[in-house]
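[Solved] Which block belongs to which protein?

Original post:
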Amino acid sequence: MAEFGENIKRAREEKGFTQQTLANKLYVSRQAVSRWENGSRYPDLLTAKSLAAALDTNLDKLLSNDDMQNYPEVNPVIEYPLYKRVQTALFSAAFVTNLVQLLWYFFFNLTENRALQTDYEAALQIYFAISSGLITVVLLFGSVKSIKDTINPRAAAEIAVMLIGVDILDILVEQYLNWLNNSLVSVWSITLNAVIDASFIIFVLLFFIGKKPRRPITVYICAGLVIIRISGAYISNLISVSGTPGLTKYLITSSLRLFALLLIPILIIYMAATLYRKRQLTRSCLDGENYPQKVK
């Protein structure tokens, strides 16, 4: 990466350009040019082509094969404006929905019929509020990084692992509380859910920051299984409360929770799909294909 930055700086100085002059020619900020030269970021491929043209040089002279291979791993997962807006919208929607859900629990569920609650019911609701709070904080962190355009593959992996990790913690804590209440659920069900989440974490790490390039199919499968599990639990509980006085409350609270939870695997799928496409684009450039004029 240092070599790429040095190449840009050398070519810029040979042309007699300041960083600001070069930035103006490329319609980027001076800080962007500075980051390219100090090696902390790469330009996206289309900007790199314009950069080479502005410096009257060949892109191959600026970017070595090592630079091209490192490019998808250093830059943000999503670089094109429309894709960035979708990512930020997903993070923001997930954050807002989880925040509303958290506030609902604090102001209604944690106080409703509190005197009639058993210790087990109170513990479940308190832990659920803590869990929702953790997820909300992680999503806020992701939203801020998405707005600042700093979600590279490693950051994406960290966010995904934290979100999935909270789900594993939910499974273990709920099972422990059920054990204390002598109301254990199926061991096979708990084990299966924990295995799915653990596999999800492993495949996310292998795809986003693994040394060997991989297809995201295993990430998609695990995310799909999580979506099926969440939807299945919602439908099962909906059937159990149908025709009861609690149906309206369930539709309000659980539908909100369903939407909040579904956004998380959808967000992970979106980041994985976009990063995979960027890696494929980079690989096509390394193989000598023409640099694309437009990414659809």
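(Second protein starts here: sequence line, then its structure tokens.)
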Amino acid sequence: MRCRSCFGRGTGGAGHGLTPAASPEPLLFLLCALLCLASLSGLAQERPDARFDPESLERQARFAFSQNLADYLFLGTLNAELQYSIHRSWTLLGGARYNNWTWLHRQESQFEARQQTYYLGVRWWPWYTYSGWWLGSRMQFQEYNRGGIFSPETEEGNAYGIGASGGYSVHVNRWLNVDFGLGFWGGMTRYVTYACPYCGKRTGEGTKAFFLPDELRVALELVF
């Protein structure tokens, strides 16, 4: 199905209010928050192993930096996440995802899933941090423009909400984990819809609630 009637109309279009024109405030907020977390850590210590008692585990200060391979497979979405252990069973985390790619640009079959996403949250680990099962929660902001993938209709907007996720982290060696997970999020979005990805024909706008899948996680995680 293609949108034939609207190509070449107008100049505002679905392709003119995208992530490059985004306000820098969300990114600055995230960077400041991560710097605050880093200032709490002091020098990173060696990661614990099973022979340590709970008191020793609680004294460990360690970071984990991860890259989600599943995000890269979804139209080349760049991503990064940093965690900091504050307790034997708790980590603070902050991260970002960024996609500014348009596929088949300026063609009737153009499609995109453009976004810039920033989040802050926590994870709970029943055994100890960076090992085994985990549950997470986060606050998240996303500026997005997506359309042309499953239908010609394109939507862009700003979304705010909270999310929940869960997964399992597998040790590969002392410094490397493979982290698996799945997440959802919900909240409110201010949006505009267009008839197709490359046209200026508005079909609607407003504010609405949403609940959506947020993350399929297959990540390489460096622990230090």
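Accepted answer:
You had them paired correctly. Confirming on the second one: Helices lie at 25-39, 54-58, 69-73.
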